[in-house]
Amino acid sequence: PALAGYVVSPDGKWLALLKPWKNRLNIFVHAVDQDPRRAKQITFVEDRDIRSITWKGNEHVLYSRDNTGDENTHVFAVNVKK
Asked: Which string of DSSP letters, residue by residue, matches 4-62?
């Protein structure tokens, strides 16, 4: 997909979304009043797509993915303010 999985932060100020980078879905964020084309990339995963995202507070996005193809899903957190 070109864009997928939009999720609004708890304070309603940010949007997190999944967007392709190097043929893999990665997480991008942008302010709700900002053009989505100016979204900031916060993950740089090249081996497997990120499939799901959710907010943890207003500063962290949690995401899950299968690291090695063994169908064991792992959860990761990334700070959107860095």
From this structure: EEEEE-TTSSEEEEEEEETTEEEEEEEETTS-GGGPEE-----SS---EEEEETTTEEE
